[in-house]
Each structure stands twice: as C-alpha cells, then as structure tokens.
C-alpha cells in the first residue's frame, strides 16, 4: 500500500511541475467572489470606525476595502465571509463590541 500512495504522490508532484511550467492546464480552478465589505458592515449597524476596531483593522484600511482600492486578504477576508454568511455572528460582533465601548 505504501508504494501505491508514494506513486500517487509522485504523479501529483509531476503534474504540479507540468502546470507550473505551462505544459499542462490545471484541472480545477476555484474562484471566490470578493466580499462586499460595505454591505457586510451595514448588516452590523456599526460605523466605519467601530467596525474597523471590531475586526482589528484601521479605519483607512476599511475605507479602502469599501471603495474598492484594496481587497481584504487572509484572516480578515475569512472573518468578513463569516459575518456575511452568519447573521448570528454579526449580532454577536455588535453586542460584544458595544459592550466594550
């Protein structure tokens, strides 16, 4: 069984190398839509300053996201997706943030 797994792994590595070199096209492409930050913030009812503080970014960064000059990445993007998908987490964010203010 180990030889079979090793052979599968080597085949994957070879395919990845061919994709990188442009000799082969990737079989699977996953595209994720950009989060609409302004709409997500609107769900919370928070101002730009409070929302930025709540998610741990500067107000200027949030403004850039909302105006499309920049796009959230990494954990900020993941948090925005969670807030967009789960209204309970939006309410939780609002209640936790307002209780600290």
Automatic annotation (TrEMBL):
Residues 37-90 form the HTH cro/C1-type domain. Keywords: DNA-binding, Transcription, Transcription regulation. InterPro entries: Cro/C1-type_HTH, HTH-type_reg/antitoxin, Lambda_DNA-bd_dom_sf, NadS-like. It holds the Pfam family HTH_3. Signal peptide: none annotated. The keyword Cell inner membrane does not apply. It comes from the Bacteria. Gene3D superfamilies: lambda repressor-like DNA-binding domains (1.10.260.40). GO terms for molecular function: DNA binding. PANTHER family: ANTITOXIN MQSA, MERR FAMILY BACTERIAL REGULATORY PROTEIN. This is Helix-turn-helix domain-containing protein. The lineage of its organism: Bacteria, Pseudomonadati, Pseudomonadota, Gammaproteobacteria, Thiotrichales.
């Amino acid at each position: 069984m180990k030889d079979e797994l090793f052979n599968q792994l080597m085949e994957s590595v070879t395919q990845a190398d061919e994709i990188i070199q442009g000799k082969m096209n990737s079989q699977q492409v996953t595209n994720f839509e950009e989060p609409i930050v302004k709409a997500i913030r609107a769900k919370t009812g928070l101002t730009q300053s409070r929302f930025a503080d709540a998610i741990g970014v500067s107000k200027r960064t949030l403004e850039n996201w909302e105006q499309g000059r920049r796009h959230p990445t990494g954990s900020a993007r993941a948090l925005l997706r969670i807030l967009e998908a789960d209204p309970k987490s939006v309410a939780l964010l609002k209640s936790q943030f307002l209780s600290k203010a």
